[in-house]
Design a protein that fits this description.
This protein is mostly helical. It is built from 12 helices and no strands. Helix 1 runs antiparallel to helix 4 and helix 4 packs parallel to helix 7.
Amino acid sequence: MGSARPVGRPTAISIALAAVPLGAFALAAWSQRWTHDDGFITLRVVEHVVAGDGPVYNAGQRVEAYTSPVHLAVLVVLRVALGWAVDVAWLGACATLAAATAGLALAAAGAARLARAGGATGVLVPFGLLVPVALPPMWEYATAGLETGLAIGWIGATFWVLAGLAARGRPHAVARRRGSPAPEVAPGRLAPVAVLVGLGPLVRPELALVTVAWLVVLCRLELARERPWWRLVATAAALPV
């Protein structure tokens, strides 16, 4: 009778190794905290939303002045919940920095999921996390009052979820090749994933291209083989449309 693979210690070491560049990124971004001029435009829209004028730049003028409905919604919630104690510009900077850091962490965790599913048992060194640390624009725009941090967070979170589905689908692929029955997966389990994938254009319009790529991946996953692809696409498009 075989014993479980001793991945506890290697995993702990991998997490510690990932924490170093993540911490360096967060510190570098915080040292360059600022608000872009477009960020102040968004903050003005937030104040109008809270005042009851709607998402406009000037009261009474129905002119769209923002590019990210998700970013605007996050700022409005923060403004209503904590705006009485902290300036919304600081809240936005902290939120986007947290989203960017979390996105990088989730991207590394997703890569680790795929590696472990492929049989890796040793220490995983997240060299990819050195890239954002080495690029000043990455940490300069993590707190610029824009949706850049949320975009990084969304990409990382979506990759992490899809990587988890791919890893869990390996037993299904093995069972299918052997001709044996595979375990059932609740049809509704993929719906929240499709919704997450579809948030791309609402985070940033050009992320629609990334959403299309993620949708192709989702529809090709082993766990989605028995589901009509158009249902996943329709679920993903529900919110943006």
